[in-house]
Structure prediction request, 592 residues.
Amino acid sequence: MKAFWPIYKRELFVFFATPLAWVLVVVFLVVQGMHFFLLVDHFSREVDVASDETPMSAFFGNTVLLYLVLLVLVPPMTMRMFAEERRSGTIESLMSAPVSSAAVVLAKYAAVVTTYVAMWLPTALYLVILGRTGSLDWRTAASAYLGVLLVGAAYLAIGLCASALTQSQFLAMVWTALVLLVFFVLGIGEFVTREGTVMNAICAHVSVWSHMNDFASGMVDSRHVIFYATLIALPLFVSTRAVDAWRWG
Amino acid sequence: MLLRRGRRASLLPARYKALVIRVAHLTKRYGAHLAVDDVSFEVGRGEVVGLLGPNGAGKTTLLRTLAGVLGPTAGEITVAGYDAVRDSFEARRHIGYMPEAAALYVEMRVVEYLRFRAELKRVPRGSRRAYVDEAMARAGVIDVANKCIAHLSKGYRQRVGIADAIVARPPVVILDEPTAGLDPNQIRHARALVRELGRSHTVIVSTHILSEVEACATHVLLLHRGKLVARGPMAALASLRHERGASVDLMVRGEADRAEAAARGIRGVQSASAHGSEDADVITLRVTFAADADAGARASATEDVVTALVASGLGVREVRPAAGSLEEVFAQLTAADPASAAA
Prediction:
């Protein structure tokens, strides 16, 4: 695992040395900023909100914007991680150094998750603004961010896995987007299937929508946490096996 | 665990200490394609081994397996006493490998890249700077240390690749086609660098160009269609070519018939045949020595031929061994089976 640290540092360096990361960060922050502005504007007009909805629960849950943004952001973030190295041949010198497949996969994954966290970091300012103008439950905020982290980390793991399974960055991007889309569509299924059916149960279980609603209202459901932990661990395991497979192919 | 590994290495018999790489019955298969077929050889400390073979002979696959990038389908590889499969980590620590076309992270600066590689290869933090500086100095990339690799010429990238291979001061350095795609000047530099590396490392360098091996190697491995067709010290291969081409070429001014007649009948000469050249009155006379003639007999036969030619009023302008270049030997060895000769 000694190889983890240098690879992690290099991956982070590459992210921020290339314009791609900055473009993604800017797009992300513009979309989230607009989203936040519209929500706050909405809530400031309706003075007597009867529901228990708060700007924060509306920002993180009950909105399609979170997944749409992730759907656009995650594939380009992860597509080059392995595909690029295999196409350019740098993977060969990487694997000729004393490194383990697990260290390579984990280091790359940690780097992309760090980048993802860095993208969300400026949105903490919104909480500060909300906290100054009204009351804010910080524990609910923490739960909402945990949800954001889990969903993002799972999507990034899927993207990394797609990148390890193909040599083409483009294919990696398409595959990632497809898988994320399938999860999203299944999630919508929760509302269109009849309640009580197996399909409805499956859809409800994988629905990012309802997961984020729970997280955004301060509910940390262990089922959700385990679901996302599985979505993180499984692709990472497959990626490690894929890296091993190149050696024995 | 570490201690045991260390002890095992030092308990090896003395003759193994001089061996840095031992390959036994190595086979690598890609699906149905047999890339390396039952190859066995040994490399001693301080040798510069030229791995020769036509394109597609399996050179790169063989080097990748040695470097630990690929696992062997069958057979055994030992690097500095460590098994390349079971003790893959330790084996890889003892090898510096430059892949074909020196693939590098182009978005990094040279010095950044080498520091990253040194850290990856577990050079202790304190000595990292010194190791990187030394590698840059030896590979001749100090003047581009702060340049982005994307902006470097092919020659410089190749040198950065070599600097990367030696940065952790491994006992074995493996270079896959270090001169591919370079201009003649850069090739000269690269060869000089390989020779220089040979003084402090065991070097394995692959190429499909013979003169390259002649220029810098002490030993040769000849690979053809995944099989090892010849191996041994450079001198042995060089003598092989003399044995095979036991003849001399003479540039003679005069008529072909007279020249042939003069050369025939001299003791030690088996045959003499003349053919013309562009220069009308100068012909090339090839004299082939008898099979049983040793080096001394050949030398005196050569003298006799020259004397006879001069005596019959012909002018001898040049005498050179027709022995053929190593290229001819190479062609003979690799064209052993008719299928490949036709290909």
